[in-house]
UniProtKB/TrEMBL annotation:
This is Helix-turn-helix domain-containing protein. It comes from Niallia taxi. Residues 63-101 form the Sin domain. It holds the Pfam family HTH_3. PANTHER family: HTH-TYPE TRANSCRIPTIONAL REGULATOR (PTHR46797), HTH-TYPE TRANSCRIPTIONAL REGULATOR SINR (PTHR46797:SF13). The keyword Electron transport does not apply.
Length: 108
C-alpha cells in the first residue's frame, strides 16, 4: 500500500507531513489522504516528487508487502516513533543497543 510505505519513509527521514509537503510541493491534505489510504492511486508525477524528496525510488513507494507493525507491541512502536521525532538516527540507536548489550555482558 502506497500510504504505508510513504508514512514509513517520511518518518525514517524525520519529516512531518508539513515538511514533506513543503519539500515535495504536494499539499499536506493530499499527503494525509495517501497515508491514510483514502487516496489509493496517486499520480506518477506525485509519486516521483515524493520519491525524489525522500531519496528513494517510486518502486519503493509502490511496494506490495510493506513492513507491518501489526505484530509489534504498541509501546515499542511508540518508543521508536518518539526516537525518530526526537531526531535519533539509526546509527545512534544502534550504538545505544550495543552499549546496553555491553553493559549487560559486563554485569554477568
Amino acid at each position: 500500500m502506497v500510504g504505508t510505505a510513504l508514512k514509513r519513509l517520511r518518518l525514517e527521514k524525520g519529516y512531518s507531513i508539513n515538511e514533506l509537503s513543503d519539500r515535495a510541493g504536494v499539499s499536506k491534505s493530499y499527503l494525509s489522504y495517501i497515508e491514510r489510504g483514502i487516496q489509493k492511486n496517486p499520480s506518477l508525477q506525485v509519486l516521483s516528487k515524493l520519491a525524489s524528496t525522500l531519496d528513494t525510488h517510486v518502486e519503493e513507494l509502490l511496494e506490495t508487502n510493506p513492513t507491518s507493525t501489526d505484530n509489534l507491541d504498541s509501546e515499542w512502536v511508540n518508543l521508536v516513533e518518539e526516537a525518530i521525532k526526537e531526531g535519533i538516527t539509526k546509527d545512534e540507536f544502534s550504538c545505544y543497543l550495543e552499549f546496553i548489550k555491553f553493559k549487560k555482558s559486563s554485569a554477568d
